[in-house]
Amino acid sequence: MSGRLDGRVALISGGASGMGASHARAFVAEGASVLIGDISDEAGQKLAAELGEAAAFIHLDVTSAQDWRVAVDAAVERFGKLDVLVNNAGILDFGPLGAYTEEQWQRTLSINLTGPFLGLTAARDALVAARPASVVNISSAAGIQGVSGAHAYTASKFGVRGLTKSAALELAPHGVRVNSVHPGGILTPMIGVPEGSTADRTANTLGRLGMAEEVTAVVVFLASHESSYCTAAEFVVDGGMTAGRPA
Questions:
Q1: Which one of 68, 117, 153, 235 is the catalytic residue?
Q2: Is this structure's pTM higher than 0.90?
Q3: Domains (range + CATH), the chain
Q4: Span 234-245, pLDDT tens digits
Q5: Closest Cα partner for 151 from 105, 107, 197?
């Protein structure tokens, strides 16, 4: 039985845990080969071993242009090409204006926004060579609406939304589609809720947190040829959060 991503090769940043690990597992299950990039070496190596020959791990600090170049080269060397880039790595932090430091601001933007830019820069030629190719940038519901106290996070995720559109316009003639995914509250360690928790949430229409796999389903679609007419678009997976407060 053929998979939806048969023959595709993907590089996933922040792929060792949370949503990134969910994406990696699904990509392999759908027939893709995956290079998992992360700063968490132990977790990344463990996941790659779990996924077998179709997966490999590389240390990737997304704020390092050199790390990105090495990762792209490794994907092409190991698997022969690079069809899909998933810019998934990110951090979330909070702090009120007046107390939130410039250092915190710069760190969040360097990971959440400069990281995807450096990834696109490093992968551009490989993606064009493998055309038709796809880039999936993981933004956030915070890239659609503001989040009080999460100033750098919100700014970075709005920035990813904009970068997605400028890159999509530039790369469309070269056979590369670029889309953004905007998760709401998802059950991962990033938001301080353990995976597998049954925590409720009333900040969205569905009244619950989402599962990583529910975001992954959209990422798989965007990485596949099924989404061949989708580019420069925003795919919101937020349980209705950005629609407004439920009654």
A1: 153
A2: yes
A3: 9-106+132-239 (3.40.50.720)
A4: 999 999 999 987
A5: 105
